[in-house]
Amino acid sequence: MTLYDLISYDVLRVIWWLLLGVLLIGFALTDGFDMGVGALLPFVGRTDTERRMVINTVGPVWEGNQVWFILGGGAIFAAWPPLYAVSFSGFYLAMFVVLAAFIVRPVAFKYRSKRVSPAWRSAWDWALFAGGAVPALIFGVAVGNVLQGVPFHLTDTLYPMYDGTFHAKFLGLLNPFALLVGVVSLSMLLTHGAAWLGLKSEGVIVERARRIGTITGMLTMAGFALSGLWLAVGIEGYAFAGDVVTDGPSNPLMSEVIRTDSWFAAYAARPWIALAPMLGFLGTAMAIRGLRSGSEVSTLLWSKLGIFGMISTVGLTMFPFILPSTVDPNSSLTVWDSSSSHLTLFIMLVVTAIFMPIILAYTAWVYRVLWGKVTEADVTANSDTVY
Amino acid sequence: MELDVVELSRLQFAMTAMYHFLFVPLTLGLSIIVAIMETVYVMTNRPIWRQMTKFWATLFGINFVLGVATGITMEFQFGMNWSYYSHYVGDIFGAPLAIEGLMAFFLEATFVGLMFFGWDKMSKTAHAVVTWLVAIGSNFSALWILIANGWMQNPVGAEFNPMTMRMEMTSFFDVLFNEVAQAKFVHTVSAGYVTASVFVLGVSAWYLLKGRHTELARRSIAVAASFGLASALSVVVLGDESGYSATHSQQMKLAAIEAMWETEEAPAPFTAFGFPDLETRETHYAVHIPWAMGLIGTRSLDTEIPGINDLEQRAEERIRSGIIAYDALQTIRAEGEAADPTVTATFEEHSADLGFAFLLLRYIDDPRQATDDQITLAAEDTIPMVWPLFWAFRLMVALGFAFIGMMAYFFYRASFRGMRFPRWALWGAVAVIPAPWIAAELGWFVAEFGRQPWTVDGVLPTAMSVSHLGAAELLITLAGFVTFYSVLFVVEMGLMVKYIRKGPFLDVEETDAWMARHEHRLRTHDGNVPGAIATPAE
């Protein structure tokens, strides 16, 4: 027996499916608020000083937050190579737009206040807006497409091929259901950004943020409910035909997959997963309440709970599917057939178990050091050094 | 010109990677230089060192952010443009990338915010620790990236799994302690240290020439010259280590760099100069240094280094062996567990050469049907284009030695000639600023172009690694990157120049108060105040 046999292959796969969720949720909870703050920037800050106050609430932390996104990419590559290969090349131009946003955003943060010209600063403010809003929308659109299935198939050498024309591949992503999910995702992060500003900012900025956050929070709940309804009645699900080998080789073509009437069969089979959407509604509703009443810390925590619930809903509804294929259901990527090898999953788990607690500890320390509101005086007194 | 997806993908990768590496070396080195300066500040309490720390940290920040932004492209590009590569080797290659995020990138990115905004929020010792953590994080980042890259050059610790049609990891330790990766890591970070040292030296020299900020400039030169000298020596020594490890792991690359067509009798000579000619397979006007190559490459007098023609012959044998593996693989895949054990045994015997059979896919759909001519053509494909490698390598090495000379000179003047530098040397230091970037890009060119026609040496041909995309999609993203990157480059250079011209933020009050407080202690035995040495350059 070798060391990695300590944890069986199928258990490791489930753990890595959970960790994938942890990374996506970690990304939404941390980088989510600075994307939301970026998207809110032109609306909550009118003067240059106001905008600098807004930007500096996330100034020292966005960089660390963004690593959740990069680590997400790296972890998918390491633990789910077929998913990395199929999704990144399949959503090609959408990925490029996201990349562009994530390239321009760091630069905008860093360079915006390095020159005093209003035109210079205004240009970077719009870059921050786009850098927050566009990925927030696209991530939702991508989730909406994953729920419907994506038109790809694997050849017998497992080469991923995409069907349909160039236009179908890009514009086909922008279908009504996917756009609805995109709106949910965007408004969810706007609400989260508003909750963050409520905690870290003051005065007129907070008033504006709370007003916008209340509306986007309601939009989130309505959109989440509507997309759930649509998913229940209007979108086909996927299932394995017959028994499935959960610890076999990672080759999606070795199992047979069929279409079903709805993903909602999962809720009949595992009723407890209904807890996830309930937490989604509860967290968002309480966050709206907090925004209206002016609570600070608790609003942000409720907003986090709402995001956790909504993202978990997607994963739990689809389990064990990760990326279904519309044109060749057998090519669908699932937890049981698109992971790394047993050894790689084990090693990566050990590394994660060592470093994730360390990361969480020092991240918490950094937030503690930076605790407190960013005031107008902070910005005006340190005009040369802050963003 | 035919717009081929493989060529476009390669062009995009080369462009984005080389652009990314405009920022990385400075990040690697400057983070450490800033941390050293801050440590001196913590130990001596002298405000000038804090000023230096803050000044160089500002330039570090302008550069760092573009390294981060362009690094994201690298992390995602494998999946976007190289999806078969990602599937085929993700089981091994993905791990170091993910570990980089966990161990290194989180560290540097989380603390870099505190490094810039935490000066008033913590003790100065704590702040210095934060700065060191950023520096350590950046350098760890390089370690894991080079472990990933080293595996592409020398794929150890993995084997092919017929059931999943991909390479899978067999030993994490082999991947980790890959000799190519280790040598490359130290070589690359040292090159980054040299880059930052040349940068600090050049900018400081400019201040001395202008008679501005001389206190800051002299001290910066002292730090840069000593750190730079050690690093410049390390670059060459570890470059030599890379060469030594290439002798057995990347023979074709080595032979191409040397334009060594025939296997020479040991110890082989080193070709210092010449014009390699692929047509006739000779190097015209070659200037040889006897024994040198044999000594560098094998560290012995009696081990032969194979030449290009012999290696091509070996590639042909491996292609034939690869065809046997390919044939057995088809049977195994068709019959699964039921396959005859002798077929499995045949496959295992030849599976190391499977990648060589894939080289035939350029000429024929089924490698088993390949003619002798096609096999010869495929074997010829294993020879990378020789002359660019030959010249890029020589230019890089020449620059490497030049940096040693330059750093040694400034170190000598700084240590034994009272920090006085002749004007010609200062102008020289300013002019040399771009040189380490050129050397670093040439180094990457040699490493990656020299690996062709493979993405993973001997395992996966480049032509097989790409995504199922159209030329139009690649052209759109290529145009996007070119536009984006050009604009960002102009913006970045503009800010760098602006902040260099602006100079350090002088905290006059604090400095004066400190000088007054310590005057009795600072007066040297000849009665001069140390600040008085701030005379303009000779």
Question: If you had to describe this structure to a student in words, what would you say it looks like?
Answer:
The complex is a heterodimer of chains A (387) and B (538). With 387 residues, chain A is mainly α. Helices cover 70% and strands 5% of the residues of chain A. Chain B folds into two domains: 3-247 and 432-502; 308-381, no CATH class. Chain B has a two-stranded antiparallel ribbon with strand order 1-2. A two-stranded antiparallel sheet of chain B has the order 3-4. Chain B has a two-stranded antiparallel ribbon with strand order 5-6. The longest helix of chain B is centred in the first third of the chain and has 40 residues, at 5-44. Chain B is globular and about 90 Å long. Chain B starts with a helix and ends in a 16-residue tail after the last helix. Chains A and B meet through helix 3, helix 4, helix 5, strand 2 and helix 13 of A and helix 2, helix 3, strand 2 and helix 17 of B.
Share in β-strands of chain B? 5-15%
Which structural class best describes the helix and strand composition of chain B?
A: mainly alpha
* Count of DSSP-assigned helices of chain A: 14
Biggest sheet strand order of chain B reads 1-2
Order of helices and strands of chain A: HHHHHHEEHHHEEHHHEEHH
Report how far the terminal alpha carbons of chain B are from each other. 56 Å
User: Helical proportion of chain B?
Assistant: over 70%
Features:
heterodimer; A: 387 residues; two-stranded antiparallel sheet; globular; B: 538 residues; mainly alpha; 2 domains; 18 helices; disordered C terminus
Write the layout of secondary structure elements.
The complex is a heterodimer of chains A (387) and B (538).
Chain A: H1 9-44, H2 48-58, H3 62-79, H4 81-90, H5 92-111, H6 118-148, E1 152-154, E2 160-162, H7 166-171, H8 176-200, H9 203-234, E3 237-240, E4 257-260, H10 265-269, H11 275-293, H12 297-318, E5 321-323, E6 333-334, H13 342-369, H14 376-381
Antiparallel strand pairs in A: 1-2, 3-4, 5-6
Helix pairs in contact in A: 1-2, 1-3, 1-6, 1-8, 1-12, 1-13, 3-4, 5-6, 6-8, 8-9, 8-11, 8-12, 9-11, 11-12
Chain B: H1 5-44, H2 47-81, H3 83-117, H4 124-153, E1 158-161, E2 166-169, H5 172-176, H6 179-210, H7 214-249, H8 251-258, E3 270-277, E4 282-289, H9 292-298, H10 308-335, H11 341-350, H12 354-358, H13 372-381, H14 386-416, H15 423-431, H16 435-449, E5 454-456, E6 460-461, H17 471-502, H18 508-522
Helix pairs in contact in B: 1-2, 1-4, 1-6, 1-16, 1-17, 2-3, 2-17, 3-4, 4-6, 6-7, 6-15, 6-16, 7-14, 10-11, 10-13, 14-16
